[in-house]
């Protein structure tokens, strides 16, 4: 998620913008820039790749004068992280600038239309298209209202998600913002006003703020702010007082980044699917680069939570594409002398794109001439360079060391990949794929439903936070969920938790069960449901407590489990996406009850870049 700051007022804008960007640094970014309207009505843009310090050095002592400006820290989604692609972006004549946070799905077709009208582009970004679209709509017009109208008309042509800020040289006291599915907030000063992606950037200047809602556009001048919807209907909105301190503001008011990122999951699933579903087809042009006719097998290689996503990916690819697939931990794969050739697709999953073992596996695959497909979150990360195909999670930066929202994004992207491979291999008729795509679209709302039940999960967690050992068990699609649920609990609460195939309990581990060893059983609907119920009965016979993840409406489970963590019903291959959420919340609340350092657990790193 990019960071946006804007200022209009009597003070020199540059220092205020740079300070605001520094307060948004925690969001993660790969480049930064500012644009200032000088007193001579020239727009000066300065942008650099890398940390803010690089921009500050480039501006060394020569920050452009001017009282209207925009700043931006970029989290790349389209176009490599570099100076050209950094924001702000301008129109053809440099008479207006735009910064943007989000994804414009139809930027390609919009760009072709604008090129046909003579516009020339300098970057690969979807954002620059917005600058030229506004230019096109503003052409022949002038005046502050006309500029606001031009932005509004431009946005009505764009599809996707945006938080956008813009100004033009003709209007030295006008800042325009707009929002759809990406955050934006207005800061109200006296004789000056601010725009920002997030509240921390406003805190030194004002505690009076105005929320811009999805589908709204806001115009700021020194006196105040006016809001309209995209149809141009004016909206009145009361300001609110910001009560948060800086730390709370960075977490969006949540006590930990982990909880904030769990609550982002409905939006993260929508973003993972964004631009990739077209009616009854999956659209993954990135896969075009693979010669599927040659591919007879897939290895899925990753570490940690990403490996558990890979286990689900294996099931998905075999289920929908009937392609033999094997999911292997990267540190094992790289030393196992695997059989690799041009007929073996190696799929590598890495949120950071920098994990040493996964990178080593990537290099091994490349050296062997095997085609490589990468699933990653950080655009331009090491593992994305040189891969034959890259599928981005589009999940925004994950600040908490342990993976939550990116795990759900991985599962969503792997589902799309499996469906796409099935389509391309001629195995999935539209009538088969349509219900799955519809269920994928419904998942965001279903995750919301699980989050609505968080307090009940917190209550259960409080009852078990004093235990020392847990088992997590599952069968079939639920087995990887059991492994991931156990890992989450281990990582942040430091309790011992073991994920195990439910069918294997009787071959040893059941000897460990007693009333002090709770068992979390994944019991989602499916052909193996009766078998997991039998496993639960085996566990109960040893007087161990059973907590179960089960589907709403399941009456049977309440006769066997001591506690139930409910999830909405969904298609079996999509159930790992929903099952993950109560298990993340359970781990979070146990760790919180135990006073653990949830966002930065001891001994762990967000990305292990050494072997
Ligand atoms: C670990 C992280 O260090 O690396 C896990 O703590 C993560 O959350 C694992 O799943 C793999 O990281 P990546 O970036 O390769 O997905």
Walk me through the structure.
There is one protein chain. The chain is α/β, with parallel strands linked by helices. The protein folds into three domains: 3-240, Aminohydrolase, N-terminal nucleophile (Ntn) domain (Glutamine Phosphoribosylpyrophosphate, subunit 1, domain 1), CATH 3.60.20; 280-443, Rossmann fold (3-Layer(aba) Sandwich); 453-593, Rossmann fold, CATH 3.40.50. It is 35% helix and 23% strand. It contains 17 helices and 27 strands. The strands form five sheets. An eight-stranded antiparallel sheet has the order 3-2-4-1-10-9-11-15, with helices on one face. Helix 9 packs parallel to helix 12 (405-424) and helix 15 (478-493) runs parallel beside helix 17. The longest helix is centred in the C-terminal third of the chain and has 23 residues, at 430-452. The model has no long low-confidence stretch (mean pLDDT 94). 6-O-phosphono-beta-D-glucopyranose is lined by residues 303-306, 350-352, 355, 358, 401-403, 604-608.
């Amino acid at each position: 998620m990019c960071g946006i700051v804007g200022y209009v007022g009597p003070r020199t804008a540059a220092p205020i913008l740079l300070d605001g960007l520094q307060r948004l640094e925690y969001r993660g970014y790969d480049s930064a820039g500012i644009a200032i309207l000088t007193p001579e009505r020239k727009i000066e843009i300065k942008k650099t790749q890398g940390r803010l310090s690089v921009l500050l050095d480039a501006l060394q002592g020569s920050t452009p004068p001017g009282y209207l400006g925009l700043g931006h820290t970029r989290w790349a989604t389209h176009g490599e992280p570099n100076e050209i692609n950094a924001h702000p972006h301008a129109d053809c004549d440099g008479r207006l600038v735009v910064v943007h946070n989000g994804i414009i799905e139809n930027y390609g077709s919009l760009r072709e239309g604008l090129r046909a009208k003579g516009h020339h582009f300098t970057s690969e970004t979807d954002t620059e298209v917005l600058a030229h679209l506004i230019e096109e709509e503003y052409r022949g017009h002038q005046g502050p209202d006309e500029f606001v109208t031009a932005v509004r008309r431009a946005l009505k042509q764009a599809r996707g998600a945006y938080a956008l800020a813009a100004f033009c040289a003709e209007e030295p006291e006008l800042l325009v913002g707009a929002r759809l599915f990406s955050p934006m907030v207005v800061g109200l000063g006296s004789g000056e006003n601010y725009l920002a992606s997030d509240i921390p950037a406003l805190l030194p200047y004002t505690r009076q703020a105005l929320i811009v809602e999805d589908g709204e556009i806001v115009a700021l001048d020194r006196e105040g702010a006016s809001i309209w919807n995209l149809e141009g209907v004016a909206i009145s909105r009361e300001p609110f007082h910001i009560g948060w301190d800086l730390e709370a503001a960075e977490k969006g008011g949540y006590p930990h980044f982990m909880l904030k990122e769990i609550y982002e999951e409905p939006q993260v699933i929508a973003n993972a699917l964004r631009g990739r579903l077209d009616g009854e087809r999956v659209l993954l042009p990135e896969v075009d680069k693979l010669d599927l006719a040659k591919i007879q097998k897939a290895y899925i290689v990753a570490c940690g939570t990403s490996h558990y996503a890979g286990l689900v990916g294996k099931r998905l690819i075999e289920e929908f594409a009937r392609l033999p697939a094997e999911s292997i931990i990267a540190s094992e794969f790289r030393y196992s002398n695997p059989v690799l050739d041009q007929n073996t697709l190696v799929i590598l999953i890495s949120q950071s794109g920098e994990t040493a073992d996964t990178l080593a596996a990537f290099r091994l695959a490349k050296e062997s001439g095997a085609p490589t497909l990468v699933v990653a979150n950080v655009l331009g990360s090491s593992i994305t360079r040189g891969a034959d195909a890259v599928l981005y999670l589009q999940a925004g930066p994950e600040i908490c060391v342990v993976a939550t929202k990116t795990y759900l994004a991985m599962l969503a992207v792997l589902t799309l990949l499996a469906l796409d491979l099935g389509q391309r291999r001629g195995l999935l008729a539209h009538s088969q794929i349509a219900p799955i795509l519809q269920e994928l679209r419904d998942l965001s709302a279903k995750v919301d439903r699980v989050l609505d039940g968080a307090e009940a999960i917190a209550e259960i967690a409080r009852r078990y936070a004093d235990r020392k050992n847990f088992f997590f068990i599952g069968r079939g699609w639920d087995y990887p969920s059991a492994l991931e649920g156990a890992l989450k609990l281990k990582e942040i609460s430091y309790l011992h938790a073991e994920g195990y195939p439910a069918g294997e309990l009787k071959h040893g581990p059941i000897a460990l069960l007693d009333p002090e060893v709770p068992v979390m059983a994944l019991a989602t609907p499916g052909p193996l449901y009766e078998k997991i119920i039998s496993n639960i009965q085996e566990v109960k016979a040893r007087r161990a407590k059973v907590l179960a993840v089960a589907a709403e409406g399941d009456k049977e489970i309440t006769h066997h489990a001591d506690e139930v963590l409910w999830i909405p019903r969904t298609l079996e291959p999509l159930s790992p996406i929903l099952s993950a959420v109560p298990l993340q919340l359970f781990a979070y609340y146990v760790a919180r009850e135990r006073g653990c350092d949830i966002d930065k657990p001891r001994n762990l790193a967000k990305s292990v870049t050494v072997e």
